[in-house]
Amino acid sequence: MREVTLLRATVLAAMMLSAGGAYAAVSAGEAAKLKGELTPFGAEKAGNKDGSIPAWSGGSTKPSAGFKNGGRRPDPFADEKPLFVITADNMAQYNDKLTDGLKAMLKKYPKTFKVPVYQTHRTAAAPQWVYENTLDNATRAKLVNHKLTGAYGGIPFPIPKSGEEIMWNHLSRWRGSSFHVDVRGMQTTADGKHVPTVFASGDFQMPYYFKDGSLDKFEKDNQGVMWSIRLLNYGPAIRAGESIVGRENIDPDKAQVWVYMTGQRRVRKLPNACCDTPTPASAGISLFDQTDVFNGRTDRFSWKVLGKKEMYIPYNANRMFQRPISKVLLDNHLNPEDQRFELHRVWVVEATVAPGKRHLASKRRYYVDEDTWNAVLADHWDGNGQLWQMGFSLPISMPDIPATVSPQSFGFYDLLSGAWYVDGLTNDSKEQYKVMPVYSDTTFTPEAMAGEGVR
Description:
Elements: H1 2-17, H2 28-31, E1 84-86, H3 100-108, E2 115-117, H4 128-138, E3 142-144, E4 147-149, H5 163-171, E5 178-188, E6 194-205, H6 215-220, E7 225-235, E8 243-249, E9 256-261, E10 266-269, E11 301-314, H7 325-328, E12 341-353, E13 363-369, E14 375-381, E15 387-393, E16 396-398, E17 403-405, E18 410-414, E19 420-425, E20 434-435, H8 446-451
Antiparallel strand pairs: 1-2, 3-4, 5-6, 5-19, 5-20, 6-7, 7-8, 8-9, 9-10, 11-12, 12-13, 13-14, 14-15, 15-18, 16-17, 18-19
């Protein structure tokens, strides 16, 4: 009888995790775990059995000596050496902790692609007020027709009951409130030619994370605008003067994106700034929903949780941004010498195109870090069922915020063509990531963008 009961419970749990929001807010009793066995963001506080994943003890909250806001963030673990390096020759030994995309890259480029694995550091942290909002969200947040309701200022579903909730945690993850970055994007062709796609000044703001805000004010005064972005291109020369303004909303039907095209000298609102539409911010190389590994409508897919696993993922990637761009780009991939992988627990979420919908990727698999809710890796299959692309982001430890975030650095490898793309490179930038006071809301309007038009 006990075995039958356990089986029923397992089946019920699986149904809940695949139901796409049918089970949302948790009870106060379950939410209390966020003050005990779970971290304030919902991760397992304890380490793993062999100690290779340590217990979470509050994360990194002390900036390095001499750090100045907007300056280069040093590598807090610069003196560490890899514990071991995974190559095409020894990958079978680590098979269960590698994504399909990483295994495909090791096989495709056996002489140059490597996965250097370092000691695991659970640097994830956030201000206390974000933790308190997360606790409140646990008992009030819901998904209604793929729209987020009842959440503000924290992770909406720290104890998720579905794959769609996990992806909303990623979409609404903590990464600061207002910040400025200068970024570059680079496409690399299959024959190893590096082609600059964008050099932009970017302003970002998340009204969802205004410290002195409230759920009521967010939903009414801010009209559910989760985050806003303004990018002004300085190069390459053919794109200088272009700009883009976007407003992501908790209601995907209310998301808005405008672009300024120098050739037309006018601002145009994009009719379909979503999903598998190429984004102008990357010169059309990347799809809208490949930004930050995933950024798009959740209603395009059916979501299923495959479980939580210990896997090697990019983490604390500050070392990636210490050297010039010319040093970190190889012909076929990023330079392994500048990469840092660590063992972390991740939620594995599979997405298949929903009935009646379409997408260039027939199936996707996302790997979402339990500590930060950053989607750090992704596998994409094309319409023929072939493993097509591997998406990645490079989470950076930013103890001054405090946070471990991947707000601007992401990319993908095309496993079929051999071409690849990386965006958010701040290596050669004067200001890598500068925390800013709250921007005026008019900053993120098409009118302001039109006024800045220079060509």
